[in-house]
User: Which sequence fits this backbone?
């Protein structure tokens, strides 16, 4: 799940921001905090779920599997952070939530 979230956030940063991006990951208790910084200060458009839409589901996925999601403007660019539950229970789903 963390790999999917990293892929979606970094893909968005590379696709929509004009400059570099940075990735940080930190295990914090029972979650992995994923932070991606990019050089564009404009917050991304968070679209409503639409199964008929082709593409642009990245943030929808990140918000669905994460326990939290935040966007912070920085002096240069923005920082997006999400926390993904660590799933130690094989009976739980991939997002770490119990079925």
Assistant:
């Amino acid at each position: 799940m963390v790999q999917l979230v990293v892929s979606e956030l970094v893909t968005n940063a590379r696709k929509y921001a004009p400059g570099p991006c940075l990735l940080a990951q930190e295990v914090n208790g029972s979650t992995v905090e994923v932070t991606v910084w990019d050089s564009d200060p404009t917050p991304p458009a968070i679209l409503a779920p639409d199964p008929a839409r082709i593409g642009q589901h990245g943030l929808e996925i990140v918000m669905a599997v994460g326990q939290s999601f935040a966007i912070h403007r920085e002096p240069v660019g923005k920082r997006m952070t999400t926390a993904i539950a660590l799933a130690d229970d094989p009976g739980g789903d991939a997002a770490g939530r119990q079925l």
